[in-house]
Amino acid sequence: MAIVLGDNQYGKAETRLVRVDRSGEEHRIIDLNVTTTLAGDLARTHLTGDNTDVLPTDSQKNTVFAFAHDGVGEIEAFAVRLARHFVTTVPAVHRARVHIERYTWQRMSVGDEPAPHSFVRGSGTRTATVTCDGEHTTVVSGITDLVVLNSTGSEFWGYHKDRYTTLPETKDRILATAVDARWRHTGAGTADWAESHAEVVRHLLDAFATTHSLSLQQTLYAMGERVLRHRPEVAEIRLSLPNRHHFLVDLTPFDLDNPGEVFHAADRPYGLIEGTVLREDAPPAGLAWW
Ligand SMILES: O=c1[nH]c(=O)c2[nH]c(=O)[nH]c2[nH]1
């Protein structure tokens, strides 16, 4: 019986890079978590331990820091630079993926003045995943952990019921989720990554806030559809929405009414609603989701 090496990849996971821009009166910070993943002709090291083809993961980490020396810029562009570097300079490497998370920091205010070098962590983490095979480069942008809540404007009723169904139907509930969205760009050369990202997030939030929801599934589709209608540079968006259930507490044992005011915010289990919304004529995804 022959035994062979199957798919393999390797890289440095979660290089934490913080860069301080001191060029102005006010400092600016970029706080990143960078993961590099390489694949290619790497049979030799697996089969014989000959490491000729292997760029150490330590070198990959060093590359991330060295590339930050002259500025990081937008994370999509930084990831493109790194991915192309690995594919074009390491002979055995034919595919590189660079995944970056950028934590949100907002400038503090002291009194009415913006603080020059003090920051507070904001909500939502921006992400970018770039894949390069030497010929094609794909860019996926995203946002994770963007926690949102509507205190009304959400119903859930008319669902399939069986002997195990106890959930009461509701015409008014809290709808809350932590948005995890990733969207694939039609090209790798969007002019303004920052503007594109801010606008996609704005449309996601607008759709969440203005959709009268009959299910989180319906809200998911509305969020994706709105992004695609307004942002031509986006070909496809994948959303993962945990349903952060808020259950109305029964206060009748205490002779108290509860007209939609007191809720138990349960953390688990939670419904997990996931879906993809895309253009019918979206170009092939290639390695985008690799
Ligand atoms: O919006 C919802 N979708 C569901 O599929 C579901 N299932 C459930 O128990 N509550 C909800 N809410």
Question: Brief overview, please?
Answer:
The chain is an alpha+beta fold and 290 residues long.
Q: How much strand? A: 35-45%
Q: In which order are the strands of the major sheet placed?
A: 1-2-3-4-5-6-7-10
Note the gap between the termini. 30 Å
- The average pLDDT is 97
Low-confidence stretches: none
Number of domains: 2
Secondary structure category: alpha+beta
Identify the quaternary structure here. Answer: single chain
Classify the helix fraction into a percent range: 10-25%
CATH fold field value of the largest domain: Urate Oxidase
- Biggest sheet record: 8 strands, antiparallel
- Number of distinct beta strands: 10
Compute the CA-based radius of gyration.
23 Å
CATH level-1 class of the largest domain:
Alpha Beta
Give the SSE order as H and E letters: EEHHHEEEEHHEEEE
Q: Which shape, going by the Cα principal axes?
A: globular
CATH superfamily of the largest domain: Urate Oxidase
- Number of helices in the DSSP assignment: 5
Q: Any ligands, ions or cofactors bound here, and which?
A: uric acid
User: What is the CATH architecture descriptor of the largest domain?
Assistant: Roll
Topology:
Elements lengths: L9 E12 L6 E13 L2 H6 L8 H11 L7 H15 L3 E18 L2 E20 L4 E14 L24 E11 L7 H18 L5 H15 L3 E10 L2 E3 L14 E3 L5 E8 L12
Antiparallel strand pairs: 1-2, 2-3, 3-4, 4-5, 5-6, 6-7, 7-10, 8-9
Helix pairs in contact: 4-5
Tell me about this structure.
Its EC number is 1.7.3.3. It catalyses: urate + O2 + H2O = 5-hydroxyisourate + H2O2. 5-hydroxyisourate binds at residues 57, 156, 173, 217, 243. Catalyzes the oxidation of uric acid to 5-hydroxyisourate, which is further processed to form (S)-allantoin. The protein is of the alpha+beta class and 290 residues long. The protein has 2 domains: 1-135, Roll (Urate Oxidase), CATH 3.10.270; 143-290, Urate Oxidase, CATH 3.10.270.10. Helix content is 22%, strand content 39%. It has 5 helices and 10 strands, in the order E-E-H-H-H-E-E-E-E-H-H-E-E-E-E. The strands form 2 sheets. Strands 1-2-3-4-5-6-7-10 form an 8-stranded antiparallel sheet. A two-stranded antiparallel sheet has the order 8-9. A hairpin with a 2-residue loop joins strand 3 (93-110) and strand 4. The mean pLDDT is 97. The site of uric acid has 7 residues, from helix 5. Uric acid is lined by residues 156, 167, 215-217, 243, 271.
